[in-house]
Write a structure and sequence with these properties.
- By secondary structure, the protein is α/β, with parallel strands linked by helices.
- Helices cover about 50% and strands about 15% of the residues.
- Helix 1 crosses helix 7 and helix 3 runs parallel beside helix 4.
- The longest helix is centred in the middle third of the chain and has 29 residues.
Length: about 250
Amino acid sequence: MKALITGASSGIGADIARVLSEMGYDLILVARRKTRLSKLKSELDTNVDIINMDISSTFNCMELYNQVKEEDIEILVNCAGFGVFGEFTTTSLDKELDMIDTNIKGLHVLTKLFLQDFSKRNRGYILNVASSAAFQPGPLMASYYASKAYVLRLSEAIYGELKEIKSNVGISVLCPGPVDTEFNKVAKVKFAVKPLSSEYVAKYAVKKMFKKKLVIVPGKLMKLNYTFNRFIPKKLLLKMNYNIQSKKEG
């Protein structure tokens, strides 16, 4: 049994690695920070290969797939991603494009390539990490919210295709609210509510992934928020989200 996890150097990705290792899975861990990956590898009891790579590059994603395609990988976890905070007119275009390359293009390429293999074998699991941001527009983090909406809709559509052909392959999308990781430091924000621990989110996500749950939303508060937002007029929701987001600035 083997799983590949991107964005595995910290946060949810690292904790999913710990959960799967405890379940007996050998791992291929991918991230930009080699030192962090090496430290995580030393903590785990199963066989672990580390690949120091930036998956914002489509070329790198292709190279990664070609490097591991003979490994009989059963689980793909697309966890690499980050956010950008600020007014859309003032945020760095280069940083936003790098985020889009990571959050969307890298995930898209790896999902497609591994899904093709999983479909041929008629087994396997894909867990794409989105966010509760995927359910709504996010003034002051417009590009990030939009990128996570892409992850959600892509995963849902693939799920529908797999269901129609009665495939045994599972695809799930994880949509947590605030989680206690390095995300807020990178995005330069602070959370308005108490975040969940990444350990809890990882365990919950893996459990639901194996049950082939489509949309995974950890925490009662986020489940209520998801339901509540569906009934709010769009313009009111935009105003509310702007006020919430403006309080996040760190």
